[in-house]
Amino acid sequence: MVSKIRPPRRGLNGADVDFHTTWGILETAFREIHTKNASALSFEELYRNAYKIVLKKKGEELYNRVAHFEEQWLGTNVRSGIVKTLSAPLMLTDGAGRTLATTNERREAGEKFLKSLKQAWEDHQVCMGMLTDVLMYMPSIFAKSMGLFRDQILRTPVRQGAPTLLEILTRIILDQIQMDRDGESIDQFLIKSNVYMLEGLYQSSQEVEDAKLYLKPFEREFLRQSAEFYRDEGERLLKESDAGTYCRHAKRRIDEENDRCRSTLSESTTPKIQAVVEDELIRNKMKGLIEMESGVAFMVDNDKLHELSLVFDLEARVDPRKPELTKAMQKIIAEMGTNINNAAIAVSEAAPQAEAATAEEQPEEGKSKGAPAKAINQQTVAALKWVEEILTLKDRFDNICKHSFVSDQTVSTAINRSMADVINAFSRGSEYISLFIDDNMKRGIKDKSEAEVDATLEKSILVLRYLSDKDIFETYYKKHLCKRLLLKKSQSVEVEKQMISRMKIELGNSFTLKLEAMFKDMTLSEELSNGYRNHVAGMNEGANEKRAELSIKVLTSMTWPLEAFRSSSDGGEQEGGGGRTQIIYPASILRVKEGFERFYSQKYSGRKLTWQNNMGDADLKARFPNSRHAVHDVNCSTYAMLILLLFNELPTNATASLEEIEARTNIPLDDLKRNLQSLAVAPKTRFLIKEPMSRDINAGDRFKWNSEYNSKFLRIKVGVVSAGNKVEGDRERKETEKKNNDSRGFAIEAAVVRIMKQRKELAHAQLLTETITQLTHQFRPDVNMIKKRVESLIEREYLERIEEAPVPSYRYLA
């Protein structure tokens, strides 16, 4: 055991000390310490001898002697022992520097060298600890001894022209690490001990923290070789494995390197090697990984949600924006969405061709109406299918985003943007979405629970949210809502109102203003009808006479899209509409009509009623002698009612031609043909007999009352061909687009005037930007259209150009 060193007695001085004699004593003691024979030494005596030399002003010479002694000892005794462990497996290499030994040979030889160097380092530290105790008044000797170990052991070449022990140590540790990466067993503690040595030595005597031997020569080479290894491994895996395996392998490699730094190297290396692995296996390979045959597209197609999450986790490690993954997801959505759009376009283009082909191929008396009607129905079905497939696509990617991408905001935003692009790339999107809502309001919500109805409404709003041209959607929605309300097709008025409320939240008050006005008209009309019935009931005249009842819908002309009911050929018929042919009513109906007009004019003076006969319906009592029921309740259109009542005035078995019916009713020809088709061709409502019998209604055809009609149903509804909501034809769509463009022009002008009224003067570019910003929530404004409307406002002296302005600018004229 080392004895405790007492402080020197007072009055001690070095006047009687002989330096050479004293140094001889110290040198002999140091040699005993290095040979591990220090048990017999008196450290107190050694300390006093060293202190006397310092007092004699010989401290610097003592320092130099100690340094020289250590240099000789390390260079002669220690170094030679380490060099002897450098066996052939460590030194034999080919021309390219590759070792010629097997893995086991290299591992055993490497461990032998590492153990020798570890022992030498530990012995040196112990010895220098003892020397420091003796040379307590020379604290710098310890730092000097560490530098000597670095220079004499690590930096000196094994022999002339050969590498240094530090280079050999670096190569051996890196070789051992490579074995570990390849799955071989290595002595991690042994390597860690040598790493401690490198962390305790510095490049120079300055001992700067960033200049440790571990950081400069070793770690730099470790990171370089690791980058090269993982670069090659990544390229090999991209060729040989599938994407899921690659992701799992990359994640495992990162975890392995983190563990290796903790157990074998230094934890300070963890972020650096992690960055290397991430760069070589993820950042530089992500594009190739995603585009693999088994990459992201394959994972999406086959619902590989876990593997998608692996791809997400990998890229999220290197870039929070996930650019490659989001780009890939957007591309997949675009491709799938394009396929959905193309399928819908193919159906819409096939329908007119099928109609044209049928017209050419069918004989005059054949079934020429069947195929076109079927084609129109196919288009409507395709429209509903398009929306369903878009919603399915959205649900699919929402599910992926939730379970694979942890609802990441960046990816979710990219998915939503791509969905919007898909929907807005389809020219009929607005119409099809409106038809989808229309179908659900008429049939889809039937027998559904409140939660299911709510889910249906939310789906509709979801797809509407992506639509950029919301003004076009509004046009179609108003048309479809108009028919649902007036033809009593809606399953629930309350659900209709819920839908309007959701639209108001999503799109604003201005969007739903006219839609809400339509419901207000319906409520007021019901009150008017009840008021008129009470008015008629209170009249004395004709109290005992049977009188036709009237249920009226008074519609505000600027609110309701009444063109939805008009004939495609002549725009339909309206009475009192400025010179159009007036319908000829039977006396009983005319009396009711005129009576309501008088009642309404008394209630609202100054208002003018325009009768939309093509939009009404009627309930009749019909008697057929041979039918199962003596009297049938028949519901039909107003035009069908006029046709049937006409046959009341004809003698039994009398016939009337198409031209005669037209002359006696003044029903527009196209509407007349459609209603006659329902009354004389449709099997279930064949109240009239047509001669000759065919599906077409042609000039010269004659009709008579079908007294043999028989039906098991008491109530019979007469449908009208093409009376429901359907996909618009090319001509109808062009008309809709034209009206919509006109409306957009007015909206642009209004926005420009609002902006200029507030700003007074504004540059052209800024005016364009602000106008587009104001109108984006309604539609995507076209720059050329904005320029044209600005020119129009200049011509009408709302604006003027500022000639002296450095850039094109405008001034508002009050």
From TrEMBL:
The keyword DNA-binding does not apply. GO terms for biological process: ubiquitin-dependent protein catabolic process. PROSITE patterns: CULLIN_2. InterPro entries: Cullin, Cullin-like_AB, Cullin_homology, Cullin_homology_sf, Cullin_N, Cullin_neddylation_domain, Cullin_repeat-like_dom_sf, WH-like_DNA-bd_sf. GO terms for molecular function: ubiquitin protein ligase binding. The keyword Ubl conjugation applies. Residues 352-372 are annotated as: Disordered. Coiled coil: none annotated. Residues 428-680 form the Cullin family profile domain. Pfam families: Cullin, Cullin_AB, Cullin_Nedd8. Keywords: Isopeptide bond, Ubl conjugation. PANTHER family: CULLIN (PTHR11932). Belongs to the cullin family. This is Cullin family profile domain-containing protein.
